[in-house]
Amino acid sequence: MKPSAQLLYTYQRAREQALEECRLRQEAVYARFPRLREITEARKALTYQLGRSLLAQEDPQSTRKAYAANMQALLREERDLLKENNIPPAFLEPVWRCDACQDTGYVTGEDGVKRMCACLTQRMLAEQFTQGQVSRRERFETFQEDIFPTPRQRKATCKARDICRDYAERFPGNNPPGLLILGQAGLGKSFLLNCVAVRVLERGFSVLSLPAYDYMQAVLAALRDRQPMPDFHAPDLLILDDLGAEPMLNNITRENLTNLLDARQRQGLATAFSSNFTREQIINEYGERFAFRLLSPRNTLTLELIGENLRLLPLPPLEET
Fold first, then answer.
1. I want to staple 302 with a disulfide (CB 3.0 to 4.6 A). Which of 46, 87, 92, 180 is the partner?
2. What is the per-residue pLDDT across 194-204, written as a single tens digit (0 to 9) for each?
């Protein structure tokens, strides 16, 4: 899965715009406080001189020590000047859309390998799967505890919410990495998965969330048109909602779902599902190869919601005005 030229161009333009806006802010501040410009130039010259001294194989320890002392003095003077004039330090820095990659689309890991940033992966997924957008309205902060008809259902669902929130906060370091939410229709399975998706996105990871039906439609379209299969291995977290609502086609549905789950598990990638099916129904419907990969406690954290269908509960009476 590679980013389109148009998408890369938008990153280039966003970075150029951030740098230009930063330059204009700096020029406005330097015009009022020339000493700040002098400090900036002195810092650049100091860094340049450090490089020359190290290349000349001068005493590296004393060279670095002198550099650090001089740089700290310049930074301290700059900080004091900004504070005295009520200028936030961030005002002189670029405002990136993504701090991780600074609007380049790529980050370098601790191993020194350059990789695609999660923000670029997410935008690529948005281009390829227009139906895979995550609702920002359904999040842990909008979870309502007073909508459940019984204390038992409220307690069980709130516990599931807390587990899902912990899963999202720990992502991608969960053990097991997968997530499965079971229960009858209308118990809040999709809502909780969307809460997880929003929090994982906010933490800087890529997410693709699709109904299982739409997943199979994308697979069938690729097979029908003899096109490459969509890259369902690109997102850090893949969510397939409402497993069991997709068409069950011989030699296609089970095989594709099994291969997808197996490949993502082997790559250490997290996959989350929801389903109205019970464990037994999943085994009977999808076969042991898929079911055991999905239901194994080593691979998947399974939650079960209980209670009444919230969609069928009567609406509260309108308040009189």
1. 180
2. 999 999 999 98
